[in-house]
User: Fold this.
Amino acid sequence: MGETKYIFVTGGVASSLGKGIISSSIGKLLQARGYKVTIQKFDPYINIDPGTLNPYEHGECYVTVDGHEADLDLGHYERFLGIQTTKANNITTGRIYKSVIDKERRGDFLGKTIQVIPHITDEIKRNVKLLGNKYKFDFVITEIGGTVGDIESLPYLESIRQLKWELGQNALCVHLTYVPFLAAAGELKTKPTQHSVKELQSLGVQPDVLVLRTEHNLNMSLRKKVALFCNVAEEAVVQSIDASTIYEVPLLMQEQGLDETILKKMGLPTGEKPNLEPWKEFLKRRSQATDEVKIALVGKYVELQDAYKSILESLSQAATYNDHKLKIEYVQSEQLTEANVDEKLGHVNGVVICPGFGSRGIEGKFVAAKYTREHDIPTFGICLGMQCIAIEFARNVLGYPDANSVEFNEKTPHNIIDIMEEQKAITNMGGTMRLGAFECIINKNSKAYQAYKQEHIQERHRHRYEFNNDYRKQFEDNGMKCVGVNPESDLVEIVEIPALKWYIGTQFHPEYSSTVLNPHPLFISFIKAAIGK
Ligand code: GLN
Assistant:
């Protein structure tokens, strides 16, 4: 196509309006037209990456194939576009400053005073263009975290201002705002949008497209009014109304010609409207499914919608491909006991034992693993969940009541889950786990193989502890098989109990690689087993 085009997505009025979904939807529509697209997220916080953040702060920590601990929006980008993102797709203010300070220490700035403008903004601009320059993308969509008006967003908005000036038609700004409905007055209000656009304009950035989040349909006269007050063309004011699933948003945007508006504004031909066939087929199956599959999520962040985002999306995609509707029951592991486990898990079709760190709620996970093993309920243990499955097995089948992970008891005499050798000397917590995609070889005689239908797989990891190979033989002799192993390190990556319907634990996180058009085989086979229960 020639030069890379840059689309910036900013947000106003309130946070959590779904910039990630809008960015992904725009990306999807452009990709469907044959363009090479990537999406990146710039987060204004000071942390180097979200890897050390508590899920209460920012929800799930997503992991890229190259081992970057990333914002959960990268999960949306991958699920919508079917692309793989990398470390370069997620930048924080901390990274920007670190890189500038490192350069300063090296003497790269030749004695100059280092300032937000131009040094920080130059570093932001360099990062905006990095992927476009390196991989020759047709479009690079850059989502700016936070809300216009935040102090910490200022250097990013200033960088957008400069880039729009430098790149002309090759840069465009999509601003997402919110149009509240005042029930008492029975009216939709555009004033917050007007103020938010004014705030952007005061920083020298004129949005080219406005996407208005709303719970009610916005009529033409309201859109015209917004266009008039905000210096935006009428056709460039679109609504993003609440949808039954986030995967409908690309179609809702396409109906309003958002992709065409963007192409025209960037001087590109519009050509034929892509029909998005497989995507529509997925949505059709999703809306036609009526039978429910009930899955319990046993974890400690159950009150947080975003903490297990990728797991939820993977389960719901798999339910769709099994023509079922997903019903999630959140089970707080801290409150799960031998006394109430039957009431909490007895009626569900399948149980996911969630990943996590630290000992809070851990005993409840053992209770869940024991109950589902004894009652043959399809069970999927992911990362810490796999470790819990193994520990429970050691406690109640191998007869080691004190079996544990050294994460929870450093002195446990039966360290079923041990600290990895290369982790022992590590003191810095940021970015030092076993991270990213590693190879795993699957035993052909296993349920895991039946799901994957291939021996060599690559899956993403994020953990410090591992299955202790000293116990492997005892596990296998007693019915829990180590069916997936890393060929280089010999680390156990998948365990399963073949005698049960579906009882599998993975040390890796399959949820990071399940996409709308390429759902993950393990989730598909887990849901299938759950339906059969
Ligand atoms: N806390 C465990 C470990 O570090 C599991 C991590 C996880 O579930 N992501 O090994």
